[in-house]
Design brief:
alpha/beta, 9 strands, Hydroxysteroid dehydrogenase-like protein 2, 284 residues, 14% strand, oxidoreductase activity
Length: 284
């Protein structure tokens, strides 16, 4: 049976490349995003990405999906299951961002980030889990960072929403143990080429092609075991763990490695009393 995937937030940037990479690897791909019409200031739609896939011989299904609307997320999931005969891999790449201090972040913008980042991911999880648990198979990936204190600096409201996604990964992983279904988080080690880097004129020496993230995403989706369940991974580090040593093909400026923006090591969140039960499950 041909593998299938749903990528939410797939109209441009990392999401677009993830969809293309999965399709090249043989996945049937649900290309889901809010953008259905091209705009001069924001190029890329579910249709342009789907056309890229199909023109290369792949199978793509464009799905209009505003992740602030739970019904549209549920529809994206059910459409993929119906059209593909199942869903093997679900990727939540949709995101809202504002890097500002608490005092400079309006409540309306904070609500947007909470809706798109945390709530949207939660809705997708509730939509895909019944299907994957019934099949006793499935991989879920949220684009979210490891939890560490420096990430909060200068962008606390945004960090609250992204770390909230990571908490979902760590917490849900415990519920998924020995089910055949696993969830992971993935975050880039360096800045990634995007529409924003182009508009702002960031020199190519400072970022990598989105392929590096997409290749790591593909490897997570294809992992045959549950060993990545609950892990918050970094694209470069995970690829190196698989034996990748040459990252030159990901360089946007040939011969120049972009600076790493993520720490080399992350703190453990485990405590000595990790498995101590303080309240019986039956009382919760």
């Amino acid at each position: 049976m041909v593998a299938s995937a749903l990528v939410l937030g797939a109209s441009r940037g990392i999401g677009r490349q993830v969809a293309l990479t999965l399709a090249r690897a043989g996945y049937q791909v649900g290309v889901a995003a809010k953008t259905v019409q091209d705009a001069p200031k924001l190029p890329g739609t579910i249709h342009t990405v789907s056309n890229e896939i199909t023109s290369g011989g792949g199978h793509a299904l464009p799905i209009s999906c505003n992740v602030r609307n739970p019904e549209e997320i549920n529809n994206a999931v059910s459409t993929c299951i119906r059209e593909f005969g199942g869903l093997d891999f679900a990727v939540y790449n949709a995101g809202a961002i504002l890097w500002e201090k608490v005092i400079d972040t309006p409540l309306k913008r904070f609500d947007l980030m909470m809706d798109v980042n945390v709530r949207g991911a939660y809705v997708m999880l509730q939509a895909v889990l019944p299907h994957m648990l019934e099949r006793k198979a499935g991989r879920i990936l949220l684009v979210a960072p490891p939890i560490y204190s420096r990430f909060f600096r200068g962008k606390t409201p945004y960090a609250v929403t992204k770390v909230g996604m990571t908490v979902l990964v760590h917490g849900l992983a415990r519920e998924l143990e020995n089910t055949g279904v696993s969830i992971s988080a993935l975050w880039p080690a360096t800045t990634i080429e995007s529409h924003v880097t182009t508009v702002k004129g960031v020199p190519p020496a400072y970022f990598r092609k989105a392929d590096v993230f997409a290749d790591a995403c593909l490897a997570i989706g294809q992992e045959p075991t549950e060993r990545l369940n609950g892990q918050a991974l970094i694209d470069e580090d995970y690829l190196r763990s698989l034996g990748v040593t040459d990252f030159s093909r990901y360089q946007c400026e040939p011969g120049t490695e972009p600076p790493r923006i993520m720490p080399r090591h992350f703190p453990s969140l485990r405590v000595q009393e990790e498995d101590q039960v303080t309240i019986p499950d039956s009382k919760l």
